[in-house]
Amino acid sequence: MSYIKLLRKHPGFLTYGGLHYFFSSVGQTFLISVFVPFIIEEFDLSSSQFSSYYGMATVASALVLPFIGKYVDRLPLKTLSTLGGIGLALATWVMFYSPSLAILILGMFMLRFFGQGSMVLIGTTAIGRFFNKNRGKALSISSIGLALAETSLPGLMILLIHLSDWRMTWLALGISSLILFIPISRFLAGDMGTENVSDSTSSKQANNFSRSLLLKGHKFYLLVIAFMFLPFFITGMFIHQSLLAKAQNWSLEWMAWSFTAYGIAKVITSFIGGSLIDRFSAKSVFIFFLTPLAVGLILMAISDHRIIAFIYMTLLGITASLGSLTGTAVWAELYGVKNLGTIKSMTTTFLVLATAAGPIAIGWSLESNFLVTLISSVMIIILITISNFFILNKTIHQ
What we know:
Growth Hormone, Chain: A, 83% helix
């Protein structure tokens, strides 16, 4: 089925997924990083101190996330979206208020839990469960929501901060969650509940693994490690983009413009990647999804020309898009969709932990030796790719 036919057949459900992707940006690092200079200045923090507190909040949110997986599998979509939207609004209002460092950390915890964690979990689980034959295309269409947020919201946030201040901007985000996200998501969810309305009648798969069976297999842990590298790397590099710009003699303004290439690459790749997943399987795509990033890192190690910033961000966008698409589809292909919410909550916990460690490890590495950081990252990608091939190659031909 083509993208247009799929969108015509399931416009509401695909928009539902995209809406959750879009509003997850409120708790994503790329948006929070816009507020970092103002937070650091007002609370008199160093960059390393903020990274530590941000990491603490992220780890705490990751540890709580597995407890909601079973509810994502059982509760109606209307209920899930309403609770998620209210939680996200409360998180932004805590950031708006935050009279002390302790309240600020609480606000960051809530942003990470309700934004990056819950919103993505609800949206991707819904799409992964309800679409089977065209799961790749459905995920690619929905993921455009995040790409749109990445290309539009940072600039809008800077504008709002200049027009008012950083606290009022958080308040505005919370209001948008209440008056936009909750009503629209409830309308789109309709009365679908948790029943499968997939475009395929074969959506009930035989291998619907439980949590206990999943945790007994070594394959799960090896794949989780592969999934963890990308959020670990991206979060660290995004938070410390000033160190990258300094090492390559690029201005921060030039780096900011290069994010346009990142967003465009993600949108284009989402369509191409969705078709590749539906044609060859998510497992086949996942084996090599880190390759574009490796090429970008090699180019940066070779040259510091300004155009490399755009090429690197384009290649990073390709990898980020493929990682996002396969992040749900691989688990559905390997373990079925019956307990997909539970599986996703566990895997998301590991990914969020990776985003907590990324700013600390990548920041230290970039300050120590920029070139060694690039070369080490390429070597890790090669090892992950080899591991993915041996883990998944047999399952592809089964």
